[in-house]
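Weekly modeling sync, notes
Attendees: S.R. (lead), two postdocs, one rotation student

Agenda item 3: backlog of single-chain predictions. S.R. asked that every request posted to the team notebook include the full sequence so nobody has to chase files. The rotation student volunteered to paste the first one in as an example of the format we agreed on. Action items at the bottom.

Example entry:
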Amino acid sequence: MPTQPLAQHCAATILENFCDHQERFQQITRRAPDLFNSRQWAQIRSDTTERLNLYAASVDRVEHDIRRILGERVAKASLWADARADYAARIADRKDRELARTFFNSITRRILGTIGVNRRIEFVQNDSADPPPLSADPVHRTYALADGIAPVIDRLLKDFNELAWNRTDLDHSLPQIAVRIETRLQDTQAAIPTARIEMLNPVFYRGQGAYLIGRILADGQVLPLVMALLHPPDGVVVDAVLTDADAASVVFSYTRSAFKVDVKRPGRLVAFLRSILPAKPEAEFYSAMGFFKHSKTLIYREVIRHTAQCTEERFSIAPGKPGMVMAVFDMAGFGMVAKVIRDRFDNPKKTTAEKVIQQYDFVFGHYRAGRLIEAHAFEGLDFDRCWFSDDLLDHLSTEAGQTVHIEGQRVIIDHAYLERRVTPLDIYLQEAGTEKAAAAVVDFGNAIKDLAFANIFAGDMLLKNFGVTRHGRVVFYDYDEILPLTDCRFRKIPKARSYMEEMAAEPWYTVDENDVFSEEFSHFLGLSAEHRELFLTSHADLLEPAFWTSVQNEIRSGTLRHIRPYPPRYRLTPLQQPLLS
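Predicted structure, as returned to the notebook:
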């Protein structure tokens, strides 16, 4: 077959598979309302996992088809350039063309093993840099507040008629919601009669929660409006109302699993979300909707833009105690860190690079409970050497020379994880004021418990393996020893039978794989005496096997806990405490 028809066939095949992937993705997404209304929490988790696995399976399928179609010409650059041009024309009118372009890039990078960026073959421009105006084909509904806040909220909630509302509780909540909004407007000195509310059309579903997302526009100000919904047995209720950017930002955090949201124009939805949360990177909104590959594309484009020209800034060894498995460097001025697997692991680490990758894959597919940082895996990164400090290059060459290669003035990284930068907890406790440090110590225990309820045992619970976000939340980012909580066996240390046993250098009792002695935790956490006392005041139960075995029993019974992405102060006063399990 001549090159041009072959390139067209290649483009058509990729697009056909992309359309198939999108349809499968949306089929799962569109099941969310019925599952939420019928309280099928286990099926919701199952659907989440199924949807996560779709993309890799689709890419595998296309790779097989394209290699069969192109045969010996599979690596011919001019053919791929023609395929790209034909593909661009085919998707020009698609509402999700930014996702279609990312899908094409995924195929080319998989087949060609691209290092850095091939601008002739890949789509590299930022498709969302100049989104169309929101007034065209709006993704939201508008409600003027001239007639009063409470009647508007009543009408607004009724418009979301896909939800099985508990009308009694809703009538109880309406005045509280109205007061929250009125107080927020008064705090900003905005005129209520001229204000309006704009609510996104789709409901955002995640786990056992659902969210109505909107904004309040008043006197030139844009305020977020997030209503968090739960579904106890008697019907859907409004559990919380969030009207400040910090609280709304945590709902869309990079430490949480993706929403299921039925969206045909993701770029329009992202533009709306960025208007209420302008400090949040665009990539995180795509991740929040489940478009992880496009999120990764946006991150990489930002890395390329950031490193296009050398400056006085340099990548440097990340602050904090070095890990035994990862070499970590700080990407200057970029808000992210890069983690590269070391060539060798010192004792007592007993793992392999393959096992570490499996651990990160496990986290990607797991319910993250707001406590596990999203790690984006990258292959074939290519940087100008000028971005690396001499100390960092020496460190990477020594510790990760099998993965990091210096080729003239280029630094090639075969495989790395990019994560949002947080402050290591051990450093935070040294530098933060008394009140903030105390709050972090308590939240440290909360994080361990939230992970447990999500069927996660952190393994290494040292302070250096946890971090603190800009919102003051404690999160976990060291995944090499993470495992399902239900795989652990929590034991009490048996009493020594003699003084000699008690004083022996080695344990007098057997320790099998995955055995955990929780009473030892307090000796290894690394807290100061003051912080240790505070930790035990709030979380002494973490030292008892009974806590851990009770959580295991809960998980094995099929009970799934809902972990709210907001503090208690944002909750409304319910008629009765929601029972969610």
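Discussion: group reviewed the output briefly. Residues 128-135 have pLDDT under 50 and may be disordered.
Action items: rotation student to repeat for the remaining queue; S.R. to check formatting next week.
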